[in-house]
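Forum > Structural Biology > Help requests

Title: Can anyone predict the 3D structure of ABC transporter substrate-binding protein?

Hi all, first post here. I have the sequence for ABC transporter substrate-binding protein but no way to get a structure on my laptop. I'd be grateful if someone could post the structure tokens.
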Amino acid sequence: MTLLSRLAGALACACAIAGAHAAPDNFPDRSIRFIIPWNAGGSNDIAARELQQIVAEQQKITLIVENAPGATGAIGLGKVAASPPDGYVVGMGTSSTLAQIAQNLTPLRNEQFAHIARVSTDPLILLVPKDGPANLEEFLAHMKQNPGKVSIGTPGTNNLNHIFAEMTARAAGVGYVNVPYPGGSRVIADLAGRQIQAAVLKPSESKGQIDAGYVRPIAVFSNERLQVYPDVPTFKEKGYDVYPYGPLVQMAYVVAPAGIPPQVRQRLIDIFSQAIQSEKFKTFAQQNGFLVDDMKGQALDTEVRDVQATLNSVATKVFKH
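Reply #1:
Sure, ran it for you. Structure tokens for ABC transporter substrate-binding protein below:
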């Protein structure tokens, strides 16, 4: 090989290496698929579409929201995990999937994902029909007077709603009847119709019925009261610990496939954090009764790990198979 050939080859290699390192600097240069592993119209889908608009308006980046429901989030997140780790496919992880992982009901594992930013936390609330017990004390007293007979509805089973229904019964010191439904809309409808005596739901999926006066929130499964319902007390201030096994939160967060380049992960963190921290999204969160913060990157890694550890412990103590 001539010296000229060797130089040409070396130059080609150098250009290729430079191109490989330069590519993330241009990220994203096309649209990003945002897989939501739940049906359209649900709370996570609505939040994703709000972020889609904000990112387009403020950063001129296109997010394509794609619904891939099924298996408590496992189908959609499976698509994310199997995608090329280039940052052009992201998804919405939730605590519900972490609960599935805790019970080995899905082959997914958190190590398959790079955590980007937390979108929301949804402090769950205990609701009763409009003419039900006036407050938490009266409801717990009613449970004690009717051991094993009071029904509490939840969207799905073996999830955080189920855990907090169990914690409510433990606060009363009696058993109860857990009534799982395929979704929150069915729960709230039967609660308003007095087919069940209580429910554990997100504010975002019960606010319409609350505001219309069909149901009433009587307690919040959180350490702080909700801004949207400031008069509703927390279990904690009433002296009841609903986190006996460690930190537990209903949350949604953006994930990418594991193995994406650090520069690309940081760029995704910047894109989503900017949108989540925008005044428009904060106003949207307040109107829909969920909370936002600036948890991202490594801090979110730690949060997911802590919530997973708690769910792993809870699974053996609450969930029955």
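The domain at 32-122+250-319 is CATH 3.40.190.150 (D-Maltodextrin-Binding Protein; domain 2). Confidence is low (pLDDT under 50) at residues 1-23.
Shout if anything looks off.
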